[in-house]
Amino acid sequence: MDVIFYYLRKKLKYDPNVAVSATTTDYHFCFKVVELYDKFVKSGNKIDVVPKSNIVTEYMSGYYMYANKDWLRVDYVLIYMHIKDEKHWILIIFDIRARCLNVYNSLGSRHELDRKTAGYVKPFAVVLPICLSFIDYYSRRMDIDTSQGFFKGKKEEDMLDVFVVTKLPQQVDNDCGLFVAKYADFFIHGCIEKLPNPLDVGFFRRKLAVELYVHAKKKLLNDYDSESEFPGRIPKA
Predict the structure, then answer these.
(1) Which of 41, 117, 185, 203 has the fewest CB atoms within 10 Å distance of its CB?
(2) Is residue 195, in this structure, part of any structural domain at all?
(3) pTM, two decimal places
(4) Measured between alpha carbons, how far is residue 53 from residues 4, 39, 132, 214, 227 in Å?
């Protein structure tokens, strides 16, 4: 999944045909979010136990991850996460302008997964706004009206609203990873509503394999490396 979302992140950063303003994360980002959330919960929900300088804020500032973007330059962040109890992948899309998380789940509401999924998504709903407040994010986004919608009546560090997206193609076998990849791929191209339903798993699996192979082959044959792939860490004061 890290490889797939790295590939999508590069498309978002370099491909002029991708119009959606977004970036992706990696599995380490999810781990660090959950780590901060656990610390927050164990303290009795005290925000001051969350360090103002942490790995999550480095990600948000465009550091730490290959081909990363400063979140000040995007409107969406695509996050994939693993629901361990179900051995299942889901996609979370953070809509920065709307201040909410939209969850894409290829198992739909089976096995009461809406409730379970909400529990797994909660660390992101709690930690992301706290970390954004640490970097004064929304006060620096003059293009976002924070007086209406899901901003209204809330403090910057308050929990994000969470919604489960419906009417999506659903898996029939153990193909959740591919579904997450295609949800993300169609979303960044601005055509999530055109995602085939049902999804031709075999076709899209082969298509993704070819795309990754061609991308790697082009780099090898043209003998090039993308500049500034790794942005480093935030310089210490």
Answers:
(1) 203
(2) yes
(3) 0.92
(4) 29, 15, 11, 39, 27
Domain-located, residue 234: no
Mean pLDDT by 10 residues, the chain (237 residues): 94 90 97 98 97 97 95 98 86 98 83 70 98 97 95 96 88 86 94 87 86 81 66 78
Domain range enclosing 128: 1-222
pLDDT at 200: 82
* pLDDT at residue number 220: 75
**What is residue 130's predicted lDDT score, i.e. its pLDDT?**
98
- Domain total for the chain? 1
In a domain, 147, yes or no: yes
Domain containing residue 197: CATH number:
3.40.395
Return the bridge partners of 101, or none. Answer: 94, 162
Let me know if residue 131 belongs to a domain: yes
